[in-house]
Each structure stands twice: as structure tokens, then as C-alpha cells.
Hints:
By secondary structure, this protein is an alpha+beta fold. Helix content is about 30%, strand content about 30%. The chain is built from 5 helices and 9 strands, in the order E-E-H-E-H-E-H-E-H-E-E-E-E-H. The strands form 2 sheets. Strands 2-1-5-4-3-8-9 form a 7-stranded mixed sheet. Strands 6-7 form a two-stranded antiparallel ribbon. Helix 2 runs parallel beside helix 5. The N and C termini lie far apart (about 40 Å). It is an enzyme of class 1 (oxidoreductase).
Amino acid sequence: MSDQTRLAPGDTAPDFTLLSDEGTEVSLAGLLGEGRKVIVYFYPAAMTPGCTKQACDFTDSLDALQAAGYTVVGISKDAPAKLAKFRERDGLTITLLSDTDLATHKAYGAYGEKKLYGKLVQGVIRSTFVVGTDGRIELAQYNVKATGHVAKLRKDLGVATPA
């Protein structure tokens, strides 16, 4: 694999300001300013089966995560208009952010070489990060699976399963 940057617990989370599916600017600093921890997850493409499953799992778990002090943001390279369609189509309640130039993906090590069907390609690496209220990475998970990931994350964070 390449020497792309990977974040680890204790690292300062790269700040970002990105457009949401609603066309508003959302920054990591602003979210942390609310005194909450932030779950930042990167996914390859809106409206694809795996990414839809993951976004729906986060939406289904949102109340439990928020009650435990977490805000959830999903980041992809899709434009805000496509993210708005994704939200509408699947009834998503999580915040969806657009990173069309991939700068935030790269800052988090969520874009680079990966294996796809046995071939080495450049692309989005499905990744999840938990950023503490101090702006430091508490959890960094790369190459996560779309299915079952949110349940595992809740378990890792000690957040009860939604009823």
C-alpha cells in the first residue's frame, strides 16, 4: 500500500468546513463547539446499496447516539444536490456533507489506494472516526464494512442498541 496518512487515537482531527445536503456550511469546530463528540464517517457514493445500508443504520441509531453525546456526519464526494436526493429517498436524519475536491477525505486518510475486486485502485476508503470534545481522534477505523459496522461501533462506544 502507499504511504498515505492514517489518523490514530490522540491525533488532532483535521478541521473541515463543508456544504451539507441543505446547502449550509458545517464545520468540525462548530460541531465540537456544542460540547459534543462527533462521529465522522466517509462513504464512497450516495444511493449505492452498501452506502444506503450504512446511512440507514446510522439514522436508525441516531437517537441513541445523540443521547450518549454524539453528533453524526457522513461525508462523501457527492454534490449537495445528490445528497439531498439521498436524504429524501431514504428518509435519512443524519447530516450529509459534500467533499467534492476530496480534501477532507485525504486529510483523514479516507482516500487512496485500496483493493477492489482484487485490483489496486484509487478511491474512497470507507472509514469512521470518533472525535472527542477536545478535537482529538478517539477512534479511527479504516476499511470498515457497510453492513454491521454501526452495531459494532455502538458496542465499541458502549451505546445501547435502539429499541
